[in-house]
Structure to design on (246 residues):
């Protein structure tokens, strides 16, 4: 119990630092490591509940910069596909989900390393709906719903404050929807409460540290480290999945 708490504290701090300095990445770091120590469905809950503190803290500070028109359509579609994704995640074997997660991490790492900086999306209702749908589904199944919306908002928002305020508002809608759906499906249990509280505390601390050092840390270094973690974790999940299937 104590060892798991210490491991979770370290991972949440690292995930919060990543998200508070780059706008997304909490779920990527968290889900790349935590399923090694906790049941898959429990990791989804812990990731979503931990990141809540980060999102609320950021929104309170940057509420004046939120571009609500860019949140409405993605938010609606993320709710719809979040419901679909949670239903799929609940009915699917956790070992299979972990196996799929391995491939997802590899694909995501490839995208972030080679394609993310080259893709510029145009502002349109269709793009907002597509990004919101993909983010809602992957967020509910893998707790990683940030990259689609990060790609879109990076393309249409120039100001860092407007970007952070808007994307964290979208994430808050997505997270609340996923937690509600998991509660309805009976995936949230009382034995998770100590870990939820720990996650919220560490996320708050990590966010404050991240906001203070964001001007003094190289995001290239942070992202490279996160991508390497994704590749290693993805490889492990794929190998483990193959062994279980044999």
């Amino acid at each position: 119990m104590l060892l798991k708490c210490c491991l979770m504290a370290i991972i949440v701090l690292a995930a919060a630092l990543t998200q508070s300095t780059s706008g997304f990445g909490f779920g990527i770091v968290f889900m790349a490591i935590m399923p090694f120590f906790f049941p898959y469905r429990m990791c989804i809950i812990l990731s979503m509940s931990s990141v809540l503190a980060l999102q609320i803290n950021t929104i309170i500070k940057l509420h004046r910069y939120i571009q609500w028109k860019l949140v409405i359509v993605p938010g609606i579609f993320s709710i719809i596909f979040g419901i679909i994704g949670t239903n799929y995640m609940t009915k699917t074997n956790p070992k299979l989900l972990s196996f799929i997660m391995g491939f997802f991490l590899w694909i995501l790492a490839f995208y972030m390393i080679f394609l993310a900086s080259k893709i510029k999306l145009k502002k349109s209702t269709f793009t907002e709906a597509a990004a919101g749908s993909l983010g809602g589904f992957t967020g509910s199944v893998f707790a990683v719903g940030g990259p689609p919306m990060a790609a879109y908002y990076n393309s249409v928002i120039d100001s860092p404050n407007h970007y952070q305020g808007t994307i964290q508002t979208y994430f808050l809608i997505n997270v609340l929807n996923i937690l509600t759906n998991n509660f309805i499906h009976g995936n949230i249990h009382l034995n998770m409460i100590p870990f939820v509280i720990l996650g919220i505390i560490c996320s708050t601390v990590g966010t404050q540290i991240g906001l203070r050092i964001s001007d003094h840390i190289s995001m290239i270094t942070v992202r490279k480290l996160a991508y390497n973690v994704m590749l290693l974790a993805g490889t492990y999940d794929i190998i483990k999945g193959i062994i279980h299937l044999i």
